[in-house]
């Protein structure tokens, strides 16, 4: 396939996906993972069933942000993507079907209307939806300012909302084509090998500089997760979060530091179930240009390390969930 | 007219405007205003002609951000709005013409291709454009990371980019209808009087929670400016900027504090020419919901002051440029 | 008396007081005040008796920081001051006695050895001590780094330690003389009226720019409190604390802003019992000069407002506890 | 010698040193080093002679903070230590002489009165002084608030003041005894080898948790410098400084991160002359206890890395100036 073609974004094309919506995460230690997200990350438990817990980040307009599901192995479940309109939802389903991916309708997802389930080329389960329940704050979390979803928790890392998901994939170019041609996302940055192959791709759905990221999986496995990221309001929140993680005995993998790619200020930790979780802050950086030109990073540029020189930690290239 | 109708956003409608682009500002003291924007705000001078200076903010992808024009009275010149595509540019021109506003083509604007000039219902000069020159850093400001437009200046307030323009208008409801129905912008928040009239409106073009704001002008004048705002990466940048302004003898009108409306962390100063300038930071707050429901603030809610209780300063209701 | 004489600090004189130690606060609503200090300020309850609760700030090396005592009226109880050595304790007792103030020994104070009780000239109860129990963290709050007293709480305002106490006094000059000549403190800044009288004084015991502050009480009452202040590590902590207070319904009196005097970044709230509480951050500002020259602020300088122009709120001049 | 004895601080002993005063730094590239300290660190040039430049940090009450001296090899020149009083100056000279170290009087140092020159046991040149010229701001840097030495520069890293000096020494225990017994400093933290030997020591003169640090020099050389540190008001200043250094092409050795020892938030860079420079922020952490118990870190504890897990970079153990 022609990667460059995939990267050429037609600004006249409709943007039919609005944002990365709620996401599911597998964990072998449901209650420990739940406690991490509630106590250290500052999400709130908003529901549970026999083998899963629903959590909400304080400024997510939707009824839930993250569902933890008990399973033998950690990993990522379904990523839900909100369509930009009712018509966009229909167009998106048609486009996915036309691409040859199988679609399944499901109207049994908590807090969402009908969803169209599918998988990306690497097998990660995904779904598109339009109808959604808005979060309704109760007596315990009614915000003082009515333009936010729930009260500011004042607890742990105080993450505001889900930011992005970073998947591992066996075939970056093929996945890139799917994101660009089928989902209509825009590639804002990428890593290119000396052989000219894409090794990692950052795709954006709106003004955030990325929402969906894929990194090459060297193990040859399918459907694995690199990390899920949550946004904080400031870099100071992330520095404080590092102390919070330290005190709670949560494994800090790397950071705080600033990525060269996308310039995100980051902290990576492993939640008790083993999934890598990022806390991130982009400052005021947004992609406002509708014809943004994809930034390509070479191996030589990557060798300089992160923005301020931090070397990428070994586990960053090897740890994914499920473990293989 | 029916304000509610204007506020009802059709998510199926195309978003044909991408962002607020470069803007012009009038000043009776050109060099003093230029020095303020260069030394305190950290823009860079990138060009000048007989009676004006072009300035660039370090992460603006376009060739210039702000043009200062010498004139007897301070105020706002043309606001340029970038279309989302070549087709969107054509559709936007047709929509403005169809609304009854006069349009004029101009291909002589520095750094832009053909622009379609028009005026909003209150008479503020505006223009839509698609073709644009990208900023090209030179030896003196080449950034170390190639995903930003120019080197981080490390000077004064270090504002990253233009954020929004806040105009005064005699007729808020009529302006609101124009923004919604003609420009296709979305009203994310508004102030409603006890009589049910809109007194101020915040309109968004993308995921930023607002780009164009109109506040009622009690003087009965037309075409006046409330303020132009520039975004910083952190709230700390704004605290530091307050010290920078203090040392430079720049009048601090109010802040730093946090707005209740839109929750922006702000500082308002008057540049030497008399125009009000805001430094603002939104944290990680974005409008991701394509069907965001306009937040309406009543007079009673407004009486509580800003988010943390600061009372709105008198001049905030009276000072606009040009002075009347 | 000769105010100037009081302000002339002899650098050869021994510094016999080390710091402001634990302090007592009266409240008519013990449990509500306790909840404020635990949930919003991030102190920890470490003990209680029939009518009082002992609280500890996470980096206080001593066994408790604040004791809340139930009483009909809010106000300040005893301020404990730690001597710089065993010998200093004896010298301090002798100096207080020699000044004509009555002293009483008490060995029944929780966590302290023998204390010497006395009152300042305005009647505020005080005590000097040397022997002290160090804080011993338990399983629930053992810090990951052994050079801090207890685990970082990651809750609310996360105040690190007590910073200073600001008292109201009927007679500033007389109090100033006592602080300087008897307690051996140094006056680092002061407000002087147009008549040349001291209206407020900031006294320091070490490198912190102030520890004990007295402001003129216009009501003619004795022994009242202006506020007690707790230090945070960053200004960002104080911005976040403002949101925490907003969500908890705690009255924010003024701030966040930066004082012109002493340049402290501040937030003032009223705890549920009515006492004014400050959250403060001094950045890296310290008084390192052993012969620091007292800074005197005139009424004209005060009229400029705080550092960035905020006008002093009326209640700041009138609200003290107990109410009169 | 008995290290424990050296560490036992007698709180009754007078503190005769007030702070680390101005310091001299050698550089083979005088103008490049000067530009680094002016443009990136935000010091101001306040004087120069044939082969040296005097620089001032904006809140240093003294007339100069750092003198850069041209020399073939980088390294540290004289560290000046201010006595706590005129009497303390005399006592300090007597104590140094009594210890067997040679002392020399010199009244020719810019901005200082008579100084008593000596060397520490490892040969680093030092001097004690009492009389000092206070900084007098001029038209270009008069501060808006009169309780700071000079105007806030709003440039680069905006360091407020000198913070500490970290020397390399062949014999840590012997140096420790000199600091404790002769200079009367207090050891607040230290690294102890598995053999029970001190490998690094942090000594404090006042409430700052350290002012003079010595680390074992594995090369066997004498009189070398590990680094000189400057304090910023916030951690955010240090994050921003990292971008400033990145853009200026200054080598970032490690950081930003948080030390486990002393908990300082840090960034280490190499100035153009090769000397390691630290930017540091301690938050509100101070040593208020007059009987603080020295914290001892073992090799096993050190192996955990810095506070949030960053591994100590190899050059941190090998790079010192002069190079050997």
Detailed description of the structure:
Four copies of one chain form a homotetramer. Chain A has two domains: 3-9 and 158-318, 2,3-Dihydroxybiphenyl 1,2-Dioxygenase, domain 1, CATH 3.10.180.10; 17-129, Roll (2,3-Dihydroxybiphenyl 1,2-Dioxygenase, domain 1). In chain A, β7 (115-119) and β8 form a beta hairpin. The first copy, chain A, is globular and about 55 Å long. Chain A has a nine-stranded mixed β-sheet with strand order 14-15-16-13-9-12-11-10-17. Chain A has an eight-stranded mixed β-sheet with strand order 2-3-4-1-5-8-7-6. Chain A is α/β, with parallel strands linked by helices and 324 residues long. Chain A starts with a helix and ends in a 6-residue tail after the last helix. Chain A has helices at 3-7, 30-40, 86-98, 172-182, 235-248, 299-302, 315-318; strands at 17-27, 44-49, 52-56, 66-70, 75-83, 104-106, 115-119, 125-129, 161-169, 186-192, 198-204, 212-216, 225-231, 251-258, 265-270, 276-281, 295-297. Helix content of chain A is 19%, strand content 33%. Chains A and B meet through α3 of A and α3 of B.
List the SSEs and their pairings:
4 copies of one chain form a homotetramer.
Chain A: H1 3-7, E1 17-27, H2 30-40, E2 44-49, E3 52-56, E4 66-70, E5 75-83, H3 86-98, E6 104-106, E7 115-119, E8 125-129, E9 161-169, H4 172-182, E10 186-192, E11 198-204, E12 212-216, E13 225-231, H5 235-248, E14 251-258, E15 265-270, E16 276-281, E17 295-297, H6 299-302, H7 315-318
Beta strand % of chain A: 25-35%
CATH class of the largest domain in chain A: Alpha Beta
* CATH topology descriptor of the largest domain in chain A: 2,3-Dihydroxybiphenyl 1,2-Dioxygenase, domain 1
Shape of chain A: globular
Instruction: Classify the secondary structure makeup of chain A into a structural class.
Output: alpha/beta
How many strand units of chain A?
17
CATH-defined superfamily of the largest domain in chain A: 2,3-Dihydroxybiphenyl 1,2-Dioxygenase, domain 1
State the low-pLDDT regions of chain A, or none.
none
Amino-to-carboxy terminus distance of chain A: 28 Å
Cα Rg of chain A: 19 Å
Q: Major sheet of chain A: order of its strands?
A: 14-15-16-13-9-12-11-10-17
CATH architecture of the largest domain in chain A: Roll
| Number of discrete domains of chain A | 2
* Pair with the biggest interface: A-B, 50 and 49 residues
